[in-house]
Amino acid sequence: MIKFLDLQKINLTHQEEIENRLLQTFRSGWYLMGNDLKQFEKNLAEYIGAEHAIGVANGLDALRLILRAYIEMGVMKKGDEILVPSNTYIASILAISDNGLVPVLVEPGIEHYNIDIHKIEEKITSKTKGILIVHLYGRTIFSEELQKLAEKHHLKIIEDNAQAIGAEWNGKKTGNLGDASGFSFYPGKNLGALGDAGAITTNDEELTKTIRALANYGSNQKYVNIYQGLNSRLDEIQAAVLDVKLKYIDAENTVRRNIAKRYINEVSNPQIILPENPEDEKEHVWHIFVIRTQKRDSLQSYLTENGVQTLIHYPIPPHKQQAYKEWNDLSFPISEKIHNEVLSLPISPVMEDEDITKVIELLNKF
Ligand SMILES: *Cc1c(COP(=O)(O)O)cnc(C)c1O
Question: How far is the CA of 59 from the centre of ligand 1 (A)?
């Protein structure tokens, strides 16, 4: 079977280096807030080009903490509105509502599946305080127009960079385009840990200080609590693994780009709509390779029967989820179309050429 993602094989590529580093961490006797975290934060900040990187427990916490810090800093308050794409993974939206902020859904563009920048301004009210952009599937969404819009309306731009580590816009990395950025290192992400892990990058020193305190029980100084904080730490074991794997992220993203190129050049079935390859190929790191077809469910069964595992990102749009039942009657036709038609093909830095060829042949025969 061709797996959607072979995590074992991906991590075994770095077996010796990871095992050696883990053994060091194990034997050090220091498991939280130690040298592995410090080193990973330093290397991540340097890689992204941002001044600060803060390791946290997971990607959802990264986004929650950014918004919570803006509330503690007086930049936002409960009831304020944050714009967010209507087809994102639920975590982007949970981070907003969890803070008592109001998610305002904006439709994506059907050509790139990212927030439609032209639909942002009509959603801005006196309560809008930020835009949470999501580089969905690994494709950068950013433009000067977006920057100007944010400046004009005094909005913070927060990046959900869970799927796009390594992607660039105009020579700058995602995670360094807006005011603050949340990362996830969930095992299946392009940079994956051996469990849950996340981080925040920013150039804002006050924000960094506030987040560090919030993630540590609201405390900057032991037993002195300035906020009603939480406990959200990136442990030494995960930091050590991530610090090893960070060195290889560019090479691994290049392999993904080459697979994406093959799919785009060689799949020629008119029933299948392929994703756009951006003019600047650095804008995409192909976390997920998403095709669209009106025969999605039968295509997925056909591929399964022929030994190819696929997934759907995502089957139910956020506004149709029970968790947000107040939105269930709203209509977001582009999101709904996307959720009904998308299918994600296998793509990973360890995918074999012959497997790519097999997927392409199957798709062309369908
Ligand atoms: C994975 C993901 C998250 C959440 O990250 P976790 O580490 O699983 O909490 C948030 N946003 C997007 C777009 C994601 O893909």
Answer: 5
Give every CB contact of residue 52 below 8 A, 6+ residues apart in sequence. Answer: 45, 200, 201, 202, 203, 204, 205, 208
Q: Position of tokens 């900057």? A: 220
pLDDT band at 53 (very low <50, low <70, confident <90, very high): very high
Average pLDDT over residues 261-286: 97
What's the pLDDT score for residue 263? 98
The pLDDT value given to residue 277? 94
Closest residue CA from atom 10 of ligand 1: 91
Answer for the pair 139, 161: CB distance below 8 angstroms, yes or no: no
Question: What is the CA(257)–ligand 1 centre distance, in A?
Answer: 21
Write the DSSP symbol of residue 223: T
The answer to whether residues 342 and 291 touch, using CB atoms and an 8 Å cutoff, is yes
Give the span between the Cα atoms of 339 and 335, in whole angstroms.
Answer: 6
